Amino acid sequence: MLQRARVMTSELLNRMSGVDMSALLRSWTLTVFGIIAFVLLWELGASRIDTALGKFPGPQQVWSQTQSLYDDHVREQERRQDFYERQDQRNAERLAANPDAEVQFRDYTGRPTFLDQVKTSLITVAFGFTLAMLVAIPLGIVCGLSNTMYSVVNPVVQVFKPVSPLAWLPLVTMVVSALYVTESPLVSKAFLTSAITVALCCLWPTVINTTVGVASVDKDLINVSRVIQLPALQHVRKIVLPSAIPMIFTGMRLSLATGWMVLIAAEMLAQSPGLGKFIWDEFQNGSSDSLGRIMVAVLAIGLIGFLLDKLMLLLQRRMSWDKTTALR
Amino acid sequence: MRSYLELSNVSIEFTSKNSTFRALDKVNLHVNKGEFVSLIGHSGCGKSTVLNIVAGLYQATEGGVILEGKEIDAPGPDRAVVFQNHALLPWLTVYQNVELAVAQVFKGKRSPSEIRDWILHNLDLVHMTHAMDKYPHEISGGMKQRVGIARGLAMEPKVLLMDEPFGALDALTRAHLQDEVMRIHASLNNTVIMITHDVDEAVLLSDKIVMMTVGPNARIGNILDVALPRPRDRLAMANDTQYNHYRQEVLKFLYGGHSQRELAA
Ligand SMILES: Nc1ncnc2c1ncn2[C@@H]1O[C@H](COP(=O)(O)OP(=O)(O)OP(=O)(O)O)[C@@H](O)[C@H]1O
Ligand SMILES: [Mg+2]
Q1: What is the C-alpha separation between A53 and A291, in angstroms, rounded?
Q2: Which run of H or of E encompasses B160?
Q3: How far apart are CA B41 and CA B86, in angstroms?
Q4: What is the predicted pLDDT for the residue at B173?
Q5: In chain A, which residues touch B (CB < 8 A)?
Q6: Distances from the Cα of B146 to the Cαs of A51, A278, B48, B198, in angstroms?
Q7: Phi, psi (degrees; rounded to nearest 5) at B4
Q8: How many domains, chain B?
Q9: Given pLDDT bands bounded at 50, 70 and 90, which one contains residue A7?
């Protein structure tokens, strides 16, 4: 009886998910095992490393720092809310006493918390990445379609591809301060500098992969298009782009991963707000909690990078016709 | 008298870095309207090249092709091609694959509902309506080839060009599709040029078998008119003396040294 029920549930689960449940279970078990093994090794190793700022942070310390960072964030938010409430109240009172009184609205200027920095970094990378894609994908398509354009662009790509973001940074900083002068800036200069540096480094993988994808469309499919006399734009839309989509996404995933790595380094060097700055500040701060907090940031960077990649993968599954290739 | 399709002194040279390769040398061929013509010859002799020149996908170095009195210089839907490995777009369903061609070819000439009916009619001709919403990777090799044929037929070409349409199929599927092609040809009476490696296929389907010599400098070695009455039944043919005579002729050409001797001449 029990067994039959079990068989029935497993059958039901199979039908519901359409995947082999036992394989899924196995892969999850292995994942959990991997994490446990890592934490144990970490604990073992950490207790043996002494630094000027105390022992290397182990899992427990990192966990307690995570909580404290979160508490900081909650406290800071309460303060911010109090500040605005008090300001509103003061202004209301003043207006009640004298309708012509000039009231002031000030922004709250507290220290950005860890979560604020995460948010800043995410917005920066999203902006820089989008900017890069708006250039890289059309450029890649043009290079893939035309040998002439490829010969023109390729040398430039090959030379700039290996350039480290840190080499770009001073130039970008100077150019942004020179050109970006407005009365009421929509975004800060630091933000723009980081985003542009990210964009410069994300460009290349997408340009290269898009070019290859577009250039390697199956010859038979191109012949089909010639026989039915598809106009050039339709040819690109209906034949070339769908063929190249898997390669374009491969490029985009590489770009996003590069961009996220570059961003942290750029923020550290340029002291612009974000996770990089958080790490640098903690390092300079040098309290007994610092190493633990840096370790929290390191893990957060890794986790976010992983999630960003998963997000791209999800998008790729949505957009690509090629569901048969194993997407890793 | 002018024939429907005419290849006159067609030669082609492929130029690589430091050498030129003359694949075809003065190929002459006349095809009448409604005729079913097979091209047969050893691998690499230049059959696909001939077909691609007629399709307009390759340009002849010398000579030219004339279809209904007009010279061919570019690909077009009046010479639909059925490719050897089906060439279906993997991101489109069976229906959409045929639609891509039909919508382009009859753009502005037929209404959307007429286009839809026409697509369905052609899928029905090859018995593929039941799988019209499947993707190419979800159907068998024979089914893909049938969709390729439907796409070709749906363009209402003056000449249907087929490059080893059954080459990659097993014997049973192949026989089945050959019967279907014969049936369609009998009802539509369209002009067809088909490449094949298979002697039986050539004799069973064709009005005319064009035998090519081995390359380079390949040319047409012999042309055999097949005067078997239609409809032809593959079972009855097996014991037909005339059928076996044609079969012998082609085999003699291919393996009896004719194809080579032509080269030396
Ligand atoms: N685009 C090309 N560039 C250079 N050489 C080519 C090209 N296309 C064909 N050839 C050469 O022309 C010759 C004939 O090729 P073709 O593909 O027409 O042979 P085929 O008779 O169709 O062979 P198969 O039966 O194997 O398909 C071959 O030697 C081939 O190498
Ligand atoms: Mg061939």
Answers
A1: 7
A2: strand B159-163
A3: 21
A4: 83
A5: 218, 220-221, 223-224, 226-230, 234, 238-239, 242, 321-322, 324
A6: 73, 63, 20, 19
A7: -60, -50
A8: 1
A9: low
Does residue A210 surpass a pLDDT of 90?
yes
- Domain ranges (residues) in chain A: 2-48, 113-319
Question: In 3D, which of B191, B134, B183 has the Cα closest to residue B160?
Answer: B191
Cβ atoms within 10 A of the Cβ of B112, count?
8
B186 assigned to some structural domain: no
d(CA A136, CA A199): 10
Q: State the DSSP H helix or E strand holding residue A122, giving kind and residue range, or none if neither.
A: helix A114-145
Strand partners, B62: B11
* Number of separate helices (H) and strands (E) present in chain B: 9, 10
3-state percent helix, strand, coil for chain A, nearest multiple of 5: 80, 0, 20
Q: Tell me, rounded to whole angstroms, the distance of Cα B2 from its chain centroid.
A: 22
A229 → closest Cβ in B77, B90, B137: B77
CATH entry 1.10.940.10 includes domain A113-319 = no
CB-based contact B166:B201 (threshold 8 Å): yes
Residue nearest to atom 29 of ligand 1 (CA): B44
In this structure, what token pair is assigned to residue B234?
Answer: 């593959």
In a domain, B113, yes or no: no
Distance from C-alpha of B47 to C-alpha of B180, rounded to nearest angstrom: 23
- β B79-82/A54-55 pair status: unpaired
- Secondary structure class of A181 (helix, strand, coil): coil
Q: Whole-angstrom distance between the N-terminal and C-terminal Cα of chain A? A: 41
DSSP code, position B218: B
B84 token code pair: 């050897």
CATH number of the structural domain spanning residue B200: 3.40.50
Rounded CA gap, B46 and B212, in Å? 8
Rounded Cα gap, residues B249 and B246, in angstroms: 5
- For residue B60, how many other CB atoms are within 10 A of its CB? 23
**Which amino acid, A241?**
L
CB-nearest to B57 from A221, A226, A238 is A226
| Segment A91-136, tens digit of pLDDT | 888 888 888 877 777 888 778 888 989 999 999 999 999 999 999 9
Q: Does the beta carbon of B19 lie inside 6 Å of ligand 1?
A: no
Question: Any idea which residue has 């390092």 for tokens?
Answer: A283
Q: Which domain holds residue B9?
A: 1-33+45-72+191-265
Q: Reduce the DSSP state of residue B130 to 3 states and report it.
A: helix
Q: Atom 30 of ligand 1 has which residue's CA nearest to it?
A: B44
Chain A residues whose CB is inside 8 A of the B56 CB are 226
